[in-house]
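Please review this one:
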Amino acid sequence: MKGKVMEESTLRIPKFVLPPVGHLSYIMLSEKHQYFVRKVKTVMELKVEIAKQHQCSKNSVDIIDECSYVPHLNQMSVECLSFPIAVVLHEENRSATDLPSAMHSVITADPDITNPNEEDTRIKMSCGHAITPENLFQYVSIQILQFKSDIYCFETNCGKTWEVGEIVKNSMMNKYEACFYKQRLKLNKRHKDPSCKNCPTCGVLCKRYSAKSPMVRCNNCSKFKGINFVFCWFCLDAWTFDHNCGDGHLNPTQASQVQEILNNCEKITVQYSNVPNVPSLRLCPNCMLLIEHAEQCKEVLCVSCKTSFCFICLSVKPSHGKLACGGYNTPCNVAPIQKLSSLILN
């Protein structure tokens, strides 16, 4: 679409072409060109075939899960892969001697911080410490797969952050590696976002756009699996019209998880009535949906069953009338943390 820029993680062939019979299709990260390769059984066999096409070592090929941005295991069946398959071709020679002349000024004779006996040409990072492009690439690769969103110099008493552009340039990443690295960093930052959780169906991070609603829609399931999947932010169950987080359908493990959420939630002060030490999460007294307090008023409305109740004392508002504990700014007694077992029995 003219004027619209798609993220690299969502790049797809504009018009998907089915591969010939007996073949698989794949694309390189950062590219839209579609390749075809003889159909094989495992990821390892697929790497071998792709390496033949591009005249490189099979160890230079990674098959990538575009949802979680991790390389697939060699023994994995290709039947489990999404199509077209995403591929990264790695640099086979990452020597600083091959740097463009404009970067020769960063070459240094200082010892490598990973190995003082390293003989390969080193590059001086912005913090002043030296490392070879290959050692830098290997270090960064480990860090991003451990969900690090900031990469630091690990020399003793340094700890300075290395910027993305500096890492890409000094580790001599090609365009495929740089695409993978940047997308993985974005994913790592989202993992730290308290408004994101993993979809219980596909595992992709999903964002909760409103603290007033526990309903979360997985765009990945909708786009690539053809299903409109909505789940509960708190218990991660599939959302239904009359969904609740604590009725008898929960198995002991799920019930224990819901109770743990209640037990460990933070305490807040409900502003208008100025009542402190109120649990920030409550189960709806009627349908047992987990609700997070997001307003200044003590009266809340359950989005599932439409029951109004006091978040402080848990008294339920009658269909026609007011809360028995008083108006929005009237203090009342704080009800203790709810016990799921007693609510189910009642």
